[in-house]
Amino acid sequence: MTGDFFLGKFGGVMEPYWLNSDGFAIHASKQVPLFTSYNEGQNGLLCLSSRYEAPYKKSDDLLHLQYDICSSSDVKAVHQLVSANYWNKPRAIPDERMFRHPVWSTWARYKGQI
Fold first, then answer.
1. For strand 67-71 and strand 46-50, is the pairing parallel, antiparallel, or unpaired?
2. Dihedrals φ, ψ of 29, to 5°?
3. Nearest to residue 72, comparing CAs of 16, 20, 17?
4. For 5-33, b where at least 16 C-beta lie within 10 A, e where not — what string?
5. What is the spatial distance between Cα 70 and Cα 77, in angstroms, rounded to a whole number?
């Protein structure tokens, strides 16, 4: 997804997924070179666009924007609907060693110096 994790109001987009409290959600395809903006013109609009620009590689493939709009009775119900249809869930309990001997990342402290 587009964006710099340390710049901007919302940081980088990790999932192409938006949810509102009225029970609506948008889920965009991860195969699309997606660019997003929210409230850019102080208009309260979410804008999605697709183009072959950095950080995406140039391509001769046909450019398209692909997304689904989902709705349900409330925010919890639509989130459950989306999560059941778009995301894989763990099928088993993680190895016990991960809890007894966790692997810690030093990136937050040392960044690129490692």
1. unpaired
2. -65, 135
3. 20
4. eeeeeeeebeebbbeeeebebbbbeeebb
5. 10
Q: Which residues pair with 36 in a beta bridge?
A: 48
75-86 confidence digits (pLDDT tens)? 999 999 999 999
Task: Summarize pLDDT for 62-72 with one digit per residue, the tens.
Answer: 898 999 999 99
SS3 content of the chain, % helix, strand, coil (to 5): 20, 20, 60
Cα–chain-centroid distance for residue 101?
A: 30
* Long-range CB contact pairs, 96-102, < 8 A, 24+: none
pLDDT of res. 31: 87
Q: What pTM, to 2 d.p., does this model score?
A: 0.68
Low-confidence stretches of the chain (pLDDT < 70) are: 1-14, 112-114
Q: Judge residue 60's burial from the number of C-beta atoms within 10 Å of its C-beta, 0-12 exposed, 13-18 middle, 19 or more buried.
A: exposed
d(CA 82, CA 63) in angstroms, rounded, equals: 25
d(CA 51, CA 65): 9
